[in-house]
Amino acid sequence: MQNHKIPPASLIFIFGGSGDLNYRKLSPALYNLFIDEWMPEKFGIVGIGRSPYNDEDYRQRLLNGIRQFSRRKEDSYGHWDEFSKHVTYLQMDAEKEGDYQKIAEVVKAKEAEMGEHPNVIFYLSVAPQLMPDIAKKLGALQLCSETSTTRIVIEKPFGHDLKSAHELNQLLMGMFKEEQIYRIDHYLGKESVQNILSLRFANALFEPIWNRHYIDYVQITASETVGVEGRGGYYEQSGALRDMVQNHILQLMCMIAMEAPVSFDANEIRNKKVDVLKAIRKISKEEVNQVAVRGQYGEGWMKGEKVPGYKQEKSVNPNSAVETFAAVKFYIDNWRWQDVPFYVRTGKRMNQKSTSITIQFKTAPSYAFPPEAAETWRANRLTISIQPEMEVKLRFQSKRAGQSMTLSPVDMIFNPKDGENEPEAYETLLLDVMEGNATLFMRADQVEAAWKIVMPILETWESRPPAGFPNYTPDSWGPEDAEALIARDGHNWITMPPVK
Ligand SMILES: NC(=O)C1=CN([C@@H]2O[C@H](COP(=O)(O)OP(=O)(O)OC[C@H]3O[C@@H](n4cnc5c(N)ncnc54)[C@H](OP(=O)(O)O)[C@@H]3O)[C@@H](O)[C@H]2O)C=CC1
Ligand SMILES: O=C1O[C@H](COP(=O)(O)O)[C@@H](O)[C@H](O)[C@H]1O
């Protein structure tokens, strides 16, 4: 969030070094930072796991991941030899207290090698149930007393509900200071998400109309074409509301709805976001059916390929009541947003991989054009496309060339199309951790405020088994009830045209 500078010497321990997230995201991100010359002059990366790798095998595994998943497919090999010298593997059982001495030894050896005390970063990329135990054991190591340079990064999910998130916060805060704790929400690292701040606060253009007087409603869609991709065990404990709405989607809502920050200081931005979360209208359990819809995909066809239903996925209960789709209507009770609905939806196995935010402005108060001039007056619309491509599109009415006054909507589009050069979210976030900048990370109160918002929905859904699951087919836009949710207000979901 700040203008980046080369971080100081850093030693990064990745718990879950042999796991999927490190393979697909973290190692490619660190390698891209290295290629782009953002890594510190002195650094070490230590993957941790119980699997028996030697350093060479481990490096080879990571290289395979990089070749498959890095944004740079071609350039990646050229710098590998140099980069890989910084990577080692530490076999240990994170549940065994005695094994933590190995970490203390690595820190000591690296300090001697670097000739200085580096940032020591513990990245917890492990199953959520292991996190409290690892945090406790790291705390007991006493490496954390150096508060300015020791940091702990917590992957999502942060807790399973409000209670467990609060307990995890209490535990972490008993051992680390808030400024040492980096709670990941990878959406905040996306270029297109950060661009929302520049769009809103670096231009005077939008602010005067960015409120209930001019905005009719806001929509956020985060749709995926994939199913649960072998993560059925995790997803069975989660579902779409926990997996996407509690974190990523509420954070996008905060970016759209927050007041202008007076600086880019981490706490200033986070204060402004917490204000939004606290203003989101509490949904009573009696209202849940009116404002929230859940769905689960059945078996079917996806772009010509037969795909299993959610209940047939690996590690999923064949009678599962877990939702793979969620749609919710929120309101924000404050002066800026009173009575403006925010419709959000997310789901797996949907028709497109696409995340977008639509700001629908109100129609002109009065117009002199003949009614036949335009089919629709729904043109005043700003669409912020987060992915697959970053795009900002302003749609407005224009006269069609010809002798009659006929109008049609036209689009003014900003699309940087910078593909390979656009840093991935994890690159930005890892660089921020090394630099000690927590702006794009979740503060304790932010996480808990977000849990408070979704709890009544979760509790209601858990107490009332869904009727008729599965209720949507792969390659669709989710269950019919989601259409009804928005149609009741006279609107419809806006879908992005597929990217060619
Ligand atoms: N994968 C993804 O796409 C995403 C993952 N996440 C989050 O990231 C975290 C990791 O997920 P993912 O990588 O998919 O999980 P995996 O199951 O692939 O990896 C789990 C890792 O934990 C290690 N581990 C488990 N038990 C121990 C132990 N006792 N001691 C030491 N290491 C242990 C495993 O190593 P070993 O078996 O060698 O011991 C392995 O490296 C989770 O919190 C997940 O929610 C978040 C977003 C996306
Ligand atoms: O956090 C998660 O996000 C991914 C979607 O991330 P994206 O960057 O590809 O939009 C989702 O697939 C996963 O279930 C969830 O845990």
From TrEMBL:
Q: Which Pfam families did the record assign?
A: G6PD_C, G6PD_N
Q: Name all Glucose-6-phosphate dehydrogenase NAD-binding domain ranges.
A: 14-195
Asked whether the UniProt record includes rRNA-binding among its keywords, one would answer no
Residues reported in the UniProt entry to bind substrate: 186, 190, 224, 243, 348, 353
Q: Which domain of life is it from?
A: Bacteria
Q: Which GO terms describe its biological process?
A: glucose metabolic process; pentose-phosphate shunt, oxidative branch
The family line of this record is: Belongs to the glucose-6-phosphate dehydrogenase family.
What is catalysed by this protein? D-glucose 6-phosphate + NADP(+) = 6-phospho-D-glucono-1,5-lactone + NADPH + H(+)
Give the taxonomic lineage as stored in the record.
Bacteria, Pseudomonadati, Bacteroidota, Chitinophagia, Chitinophagales
Q: Identify the catalytic residues.
A: 248 (proton acceptor)
- Stretches assigned to the Glucose-6-phosphate dehydrogenase C-terminal domain: 198-493
Output the PANTHER family linked to this UniProt entry.
GLUCOSE-6-PHOSPHATE 1-DEHYDROGENASE (PTHR23429:SF0), GLUCOSE-6-PHOSPHATE 1-DEHYDROGENASE G6PD (PTHR23429)
Listed binding positions for NADP(+) are 50, 156
Keywords attached to this entry: Carbohydrate metabolism, Glucose metabolism, NADP, Oxidoreductase
User: What protein name does the entry list?
Assistant: Glucose-6-phosphate 1-dehydrogenase
Q: What organism, scientifically named, is this protein from?
A: Puia dinghuensis
Q: In which pathway does it act?
A: Carbohydrate degradation; pentose phosphate pathway; D-ribulose 5-phosphate from D-glucose 6-phosphate (oxidative stage): step 1/3
Which gene is this protein's source? zwf
